[in-house]
Specification:
manganese, cobalt, single chain, two-stranded antiparallel sheet, eight-stranded parallel sheet, carbohydrate metabolism
Length: about 230
């Protein structure tokens, strides 16, 4: 696995590709995950939906825990599209999740959720929906390890990429040059360039990778695109 770094202050930015398994064959979740990792995935992006915060349901902590038992050493990010993110912190920590990403819109107490996630031993991811302005995150940046900018409406795979979300990514990268910034939704070979140019360094891709005839090549091409942008300031 090739990894490039961009030295910025005391921290290094890393290009990471995290396939979303939302559109994979969930009856063969372990096999699908192993295949994606063998093809070069850096981490697995696990979409958890409750049918309330978003109008769809996927799976919960029991499935994640079973997958962890079969894949013990891979970085798991759970993208919690749920109405009560605090409720699932302990179960996901028990499932040995590495990063718990929740939505700003799902809680009235972002600091409390961030603190409980960190106390449970997980990294903190904080995401916003497309209609949420990015500057609402300003006072919470120091509480998070990563910021997620949704480039589709959360809840379903296969949606069209929203190019008008890129100014949010640019704003974050300009103001927080060492921040891990993730994009999720409609990201693939046709849309990776604006993501990379805006400053995203963590790339979630579902349909474009999983439905591809050559997932390995797709991930390599996206990584190369992001690395070129990371290298510009080296």
């Amino acid at each position: 696995m090739r990894v490039n770094h961009r030295k910025m202050g005391s921290k290094q930015l890393t290009c990471k590709i995290g396939p979303s398994i939302l559109n994979a064959d969930l009856s063969n979740l372990h096999e699908e995950s192993v295949r994606l990792l063998a093809d070069g995935a850096d981490y697995l992006h696990l979409d958890v939906m409750d049918g309330h915060f978003v109008p769809n349901m996927t799976f919960g902590h029991p499935v994640v825990k079973c997958l962890r038992a079969k894949i013990p050493d891979v970085f798991f990010e759970t993208h919690m599209m749920v109405s009560n993110p605090e409720q699932w912190i302990t179960p996901m920590a028990d499932a040995k999740v590495n990063q718990y990403t929740f939505h700003f819109e799902a809680t009235e107490n972002v600091p409390l959720v961030c603190r409980k996630i960190r106390e449970a031993g997980m990294k903190v991811g904080l995401g916003i929906k497309p209609k949420t302005p990015v500057d609402v995150l300003e006072k919470y940046i120091d509480l998070a390890d990563m910021i997620l900018i949704m480039t589709v409406e959360p809840g379903f795979g296969g949606q069209s990429f929203m190019y008008d979300m890129m100014p949010k990514v640019k704003w974050l990268r300009s103001n927080y040059p060492e921040l891990n910034i993730e994009v999720d939704g409609g990201v693939g070979p046709e849309t990776i360039h604006p993501c990379a140019e805006a400053g995203a360094n963590m790339i979630v891709s579902g349909t474009a990778v999983i439905k591809s005839k050559d997932p390995k090549q797709v991930m390599e091409d996206m990584r190369e695109t992001v690395e070129k942008e990371l290298n510009k300031c080296c």
